């Protein structure tokens, strides 16, 4: 026995530190990198806690949880890993009693009831960035910033506070003091921004009764999208707000904004005439989740997706000044439908939870494809005598603009009994 024990390898000193560092730089999967650092303390010390060499990762789907059951909540959150086709469990006690409202660049936005607490959380590193609460009056981007603040807490009191914010984005790395963070409240077209350390939010726009739409912060400008028009406000020059009438007539459908390497894109969703029993099986060559891919029908999906690129000349001079109190109108904004989607992959979810990635960033993506999170039709729970119904989250795959679907993961988790219903959320894991 003693002889066999002496033959065990000492992994901590198997390689020199320099070799361990070289090996860690060859790891491309974020889950493999986590396993690599967990081997032993010397390996963990030899590898970077925030590696910059990892390519953009295939997103995980965060499964909703019940935020208001803190007495029985153990803080375990479920994430479906699309690349490995596995459910990941992360212990995130910071989320107990708070709702995860949005995600961006590997960060989750956590919001307490009525906006009393707002912060960003990286689930992998457990890093936290505190943001102003909405109990403090907000400033106005346009006008005298030293004037008394505007009370925006009614937004969280009138609308259910834990689901108010539908979008978060920021302009740079959060460690950059110039990084600007934007949140969007769809129900009132509320657009707010701040920098890390600010005592309060700054209000860009708000309308107590407004059309639904989407928002983004891109290249120093805030974009507010509604059907037929785009409001564009420069952060440094808020008086330069434009109302851009779109020349294209978009489908009467849901509109969303996606940031891409080549500019800002408009993503539309509208119903189709697809039958539930239509055959699938177009995309046999895609690699992600290949072991868990099942061909067949996808019940309940009857939607078509289109992608457009926004063209806007922000330097255009106006021949006439607009009337007092009116925004200048730019009639030359246009949307061009993107026909070459060979380098684009989109991850679709509910309530503005969409991600777009370049397929060149990840070897497992072929481009021109979408992963669609959806809830299966309710079915009776036999254990409850057929009286209780469950919705189950599933993921399907399709070509962009296509109407045929292929099941990637079926019934990966059940929907908890939350009202209003919480969205499952695409989250792109990152250490940075």
From TrEMBL:
InterPro entries: F-box_BR-signaling, KIB1-4_b-propeller
Pfam families, sorted: Beta-prop_KIB1-4 (PF03478)
Top-rank taxon, per record: Eukaryota
Region (Disordered): 275-294
Name the record gives this protein: F-box family protein
Domain (KIB1-4 beta-propeller): residue spans on this chain: 79-384
